[in-house]
Design a protein that fits this description.
Blueprint: E1 3-6, E2 9-12, H1 27-39, H2 43-55, H3 61-73, H4 77-84
Antiparallel strand pairs: 1-2
Helix pairs in contact: 1-2, 1-3, 2-3, 3-4
Length: 89
């Protein structure tokens, strides 16, 4: 079952109707979940969502930075460094 991040923390997701153009496993939906987890200071969970989003095709420069910040705050320094150097010239 999917988890839903709420204002009060993590909880089980309730069935929700989703628009056909934004499937729940789309890279952008996963990125939104990653940022929600990051904003709630659940950094390790945020890193997991970013990993899934990148695997699903997320490819924006600002997301690399956000993922690296989450990894660093989760104590995953080597992962943070590797993410931050993905697009280095």
């Amino acid at each position: 079952m999917k988890f839903l991040i709420t204002k009060y923390g993590l909880g089980l997701a309730q069935p929700q109707s989703r628009a056909p153009y934004a499937p729940r496993d789309s890279p952008y939906a996963l990125e939104q979940q990653a940022m929600q987890a990051h904003n709630l200071k659940h950094h390790a969970l945020s890193v997991e969502f970013f990993d899934k989003a990148f695997a699903a095709g997320l490819d924006r420069l600002d997301d690399d930075n956000n993922a690296a910040c989450s990894a660093a705050l989760a104590g995953q320094r080597s992962k943070a460094f590797s993410i931050s150097t993905w697009r280095s010239p």
